[in-house]
């Protein structure tokens, strides 16, 4: 109980700090350019202060809802949430932007982690080094609209992400972003790969905690005992969309699947994960475990940094160590020559950013981007 109280106190402190930052930005309305509609896209992004989204990063942030459609033929317009963060709104459009795409049973909080943000908060790290971040809740997650879960797959996720890339490039947030990169985690990594392979509109992509090939029986069993319908979980009892049985979430107490052995992560992370967890779609879970998407990854022509955590129990389920696992050894064969860089993040698990080795991944990203001429602007 004391541990839970300490955790609640720490989370309240960082969220309060973020709220002060966000409030200060909201009062300085002239620091943020007005949104604009973009021809060929469903509308103009809407700026809004969404309750409960104060950033723990310490950056200056603004919430937006982006109008998107699941496919070019779909008449239904959905709202996708994104939080834009920067060290200085005057630098918007001058700084490279990183679109951040979370994985299943997370939302945008994965990249804006409230526990010890000086160590685990991706948005904080990148904005302090001169990057703008756009941290998304994918459709069906967080503050975004929740369509029937059966309609969700990675072609849909790639299509909505493509629209957001175009909003940024064409000035829908009042500034045109000339350099757009994507960082995707797990299901978000596959989203980034499919988007880049289909649309060729990002300058670089970084993906972690996702691989190719079918999962091992052991990994499949682990996932099968990890999730259950969200309608059974008290955390989502007041959400009407949770009545859809294809929305899943993690069974309480199971978050250690996303971490390595003891000693590679702070045990309090498990409590934070249960407190902040989101849902995922059963169709996306089936999609990522049964389809390899090699037809899309072979089409990627932008540089890609591929980075599994060393102790990824899902994608490196043969040996439970990506240093020796055949999946990690074979990954380069799924890409064109010359675009692929592999960097194994030591001393962390599937939740790469949340283990002790995650900070090494942050440093590697900045170095890798810089080697390709993409540098932060202060």
Ordered list of secondary-structure elements with their pairings:
Elements: H1 2-27, E1 46-48, E2 60-68, E3 78-86, E4 97-101, H2 117-120, H3 122-127, E5 132-137, H4 154-169, E6 180-185, H5 187-199, E7 204-208, H6 217-224, E8 227-229, E9 247-250, H7 268-276, E10 280-281, H8 282-290, H9 294-297, E11 304-306, E12 309-311, H10 326-330, E13 340-342, E14 345-349, H11 358-371
Parallel strand pairs: 4-5, 4-6, 6-7, 7-11, 11-13, 12-14
Antiparallel strand pairs: 1-2, 2-3, 3-5, 8-9, 9-10
Helix pairs in contact: 4-5
CATH class: Alpha Beta
Runs in which pLDDT lies below 50 for 5 or more consecutive residues are 1-28
CATH topology: Rossmann fold
User: Given the C-alpha coordinates, what overall shape results?
Assistant: globular
**Tally of contiguous helical segments:** 11
* Structural class designation: alpha/beta
Distance between the termini: 43 Å
Mean pLDDT across all residues, rounded? 92
CATH architecture: 3-Layer(aba) Sandwich
Helix content: 25-40%
Q: How many discrete structural domains? A: 1
Share of residues in strands: 15-25%
Quaternary state of this entry equals single chain
Please give the largest β-sheet: 9 strands, mixed
In CATH, the homologous superfamily goes by the name Alpha/Beta hydrolase fold, catalytic domain
Q: Helix-strand pattern, N to C? A: HEEEEHHEHEHEHEEHEHHEEHEEH
Structure, described:
This protein has a 9-stranded mixed beta sheet with strand order 1-2-3-5-4-6-7-11-13, with helices on both faces. Strands 8-9-10 form a 3-stranded antiparallel beta sheet. It contains 11 helices and 14 strands. The chain has one domain (2-371): Alpha/Beta hydrolase fold, catalytic domain (Rossmann fold). Strand 6 (180-185), helix 5 (187-199) and strand 7 (204-208) form a beta-alpha-beta unit. It is of the alpha/beta class and 378 residues long.
